[in-house]
């Protein structure tokens, strides 16, 4: 099928590339000329394992093309995806200006019946607004043309997005017209071969499904962070509790890791936006607001542990100390630092007069872009280099390469011989046996 994708960000690029991979003819369109020029040369602007070779191969095969020419993209596609960003407004609701701008462009250029697919995460009711905008543009042109607007939320995880897209556990399609639903079934059929992955529903339920999925996952994390905070006070270890509850299939092993709080471009934004939608409809979303509040507090927890440790000492507390920080990205296998817990920690350390030596396997350029040059930050080329001259080590992101350090070497390198483990990577006894003080999350035993 012929597909056009508006927005070559994370979602648009991965979706477009995977659709090309299974044989569709895809045109990706973006307003950012530099990005489009780069993509035409095979340069992928985000770090996502496996994506770049796939982009290059499909581009070379002529199935994946890039353009800034929106009219050309509309003329090409029988299915038109809207996959542009929906950043949060000041009040936490999703800003729809880019989505509606694409709808206007589509309305201005369509010459035949199309299916428009909302792929961006958008509040319930957005498909109706997209439909209105397209209809208004058609009316202004004096054209009468049937078209459909379908909601097809994405469930990609950064770092594993290609796999999630190629082998989805479900394909949610919200369509009020069975013909549009059938067209999307054909489009996605190659991804649903051995087992029917399709879940068809009405448009609004599909829009809400996306938020419900992310809010549920965020709730699991905040719940475990709350248990961790209780564990710290009652002398229990949240890691034991996790093992003790995960085997119950109703609870499950996934997303019950206590830590330094969730970040990224999805959970914080989506929980807030759903809460906002609820309030707009006259409902007070007590649970969602608590999920958000617990997470916000959790992002400051590592610093609390640090302060508590240093306030016990004789000297001036945290002021003048040097902290090695391992991990800046909001999670492993990405260079994304949006809403990352590391940002809160660094701000708190600097505020308290400490210096930071930071290392992340992928996010160093992003860190440079965000923080720039500053006297209290050294961006180091390796985990080992970050330890040089440091008093303490703080782990913020659970990259694989941080999982089994040589604790004796750590002990020798760190001036104050203390480790703050924000992702519970280590066995406290093993760390302490090497002569280091150890702080984890929710490990009060
Ligand atoms: C999330 C969802 O997992 C995807 O299913 C969804 O499609 C995507 O949002 C989206 O809406 O686009 P993502 O933000 O890439 O994906 O990252 P996750 O792997 O879900 O991690 C989110 C955060 O939760 C990270 O900061 C991670 O460290 C934290 N986390 C995760 C925990 O603190 N504990 C856990 O047990 C799991």
From TrEMBL:
Pathway: Nucleotide-sugar biosynthesis; UDP-alpha-D-glucuronate biosynthesis; UDP-alpha-D-glucuronate from UDP-alpha-D-glucose: step 1/1. Its EC number is 1.1.1.22. It comes from the Bacteria. NAD(+) binds at residues 30, 35, 86, 121, 158, 269, 338. One of its GO terms (biological process) is polysaccharide biosynthetic process. It catalyses: UDP-alpha-D-glucose + 2 NAD(+) + H2O = UDP-alpha-D-glucuronate + 2 NADH + 3 H(+). It is an enzyme of class 1 (oxidoreductase). The keyword Transport does not apply. The keyword Oxidoreductase applies. The active site is at residue 266. SUPFAM superfamilies: 6-phosphogluconate dehydrogenase C-terminal domain-like, NAD(P)-binding Rossmann-fold domains, UDP-glucose/GDP-mannose dehydrogenase C-terminal domain. Substrate binds at residues 155-158, 210, 255-259, 263, 331. GO terms for molecular function: NAD binding; UDP-glucose 6-dehydrogenase activity. Keywords: NAD, Oxidoreductase. Residues 324-428 form the UDP-glucose/GDP-mannose dehydrogenase C-terminal domain. Catalyzes the conversion of UDP-glucose into UDP-glucuronate, one of the precursors of teichuronic acid. Belongs to the UDP-glucose/GDP-mannose dehydrogenase family. This is UDP-glucose 6-dehydrogenase. It comes from Pseudoxanthomonas taiwanensis. The lineage of its organism: Bacteria, Pseudomonadati, Pseudomonadota, Gammaproteobacteria, Lysobacterales.
């Amino acid at each position: 099928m012929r597909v056009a994708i508006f927005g070559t960000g994370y979602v648009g690029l991965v979706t477009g590339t995977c659709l090309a991979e299974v044989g569709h003819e895809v045109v990706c369109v973006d307003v950012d000329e530099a990005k489009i020029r780069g993509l035409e040369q095979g340069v992928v602007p985000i770090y996502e394992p496996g994506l770049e070779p796939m982009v290059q191969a499909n581009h070379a095969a002529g199935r994946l093309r890039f353009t800034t020419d929106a009219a050309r993209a509309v003329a090409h596609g029988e299915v038109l995806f809207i996959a542009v960003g929906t950043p949060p407004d000041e009040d936490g609701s999703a800003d729809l200006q880019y989505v509606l701008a694409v709808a206007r462009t589509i309305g201005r250029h369509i010459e035949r019946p199309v299916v428009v697919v909302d792929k961006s995460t958008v509040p319930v009711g957005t498909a109706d607004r997209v439909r209105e905008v397209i209809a208004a543009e058609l009316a202004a042109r004096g054209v009468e043309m049937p078209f459909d607007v379908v909601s097809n939320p994405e469930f990609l995880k950064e770092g594993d997005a290609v796999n999630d897209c190629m082998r989805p556990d479900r394909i949610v399609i919200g369509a009020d017209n069975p013909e549009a639903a059938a067209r999307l079934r054909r489009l996605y059929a190659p991804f649903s071969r051995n087992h029917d992955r399709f879940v068809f529903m009405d448009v609004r339920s599909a829009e809400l499904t996306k938020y419900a999925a992310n809010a549920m996952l965020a709730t699991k994390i905040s719940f475990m962070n709350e248990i961790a905070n209780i564990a710290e006070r009652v002398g229990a270890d949240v890691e034991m509790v996790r093992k003790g509850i995960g085997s119950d299939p109703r609870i499950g092993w996934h997303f019950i890791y206590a830590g330094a709080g969730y970040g990224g471009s999805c959970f914080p934004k989506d929980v807030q936006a759903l809460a906002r939608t609820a309030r707009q409809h006259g409902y007070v979303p007590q649970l969602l607001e608590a999920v958000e509040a617990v997470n916000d507090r959790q992002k400051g927890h590592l610093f609390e542990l640090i302060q508590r440790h240093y306030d016990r000492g004789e000297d001036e507390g945290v002021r003048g100390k040097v902290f090695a920080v391992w991990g800046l990205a909001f999670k492993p296998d990405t260079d994304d630092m949006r809403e990352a817990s590391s940002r809160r920690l660094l701000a708190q350390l600097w505020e308290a007069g400490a210096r930071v030596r930071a290392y992340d396997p992928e996010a160093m350029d992003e860190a440079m872009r965000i923080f720039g040059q500053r006297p209290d930050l050294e961006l180091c080329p390796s985990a080992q280099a970050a330890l040089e001259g440091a008093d303490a080590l703080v782990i913020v992101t659970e990259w694989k390469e941080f999982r089994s350090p040589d604790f004796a070497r750590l002990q020798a390198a760190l001036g104050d011989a203390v480790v703050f483990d924000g992702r519970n990577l280590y066995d406290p006894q093993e760390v302490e046996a090497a002569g280091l003080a150890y702080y984890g999350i929710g490990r009060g035993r």
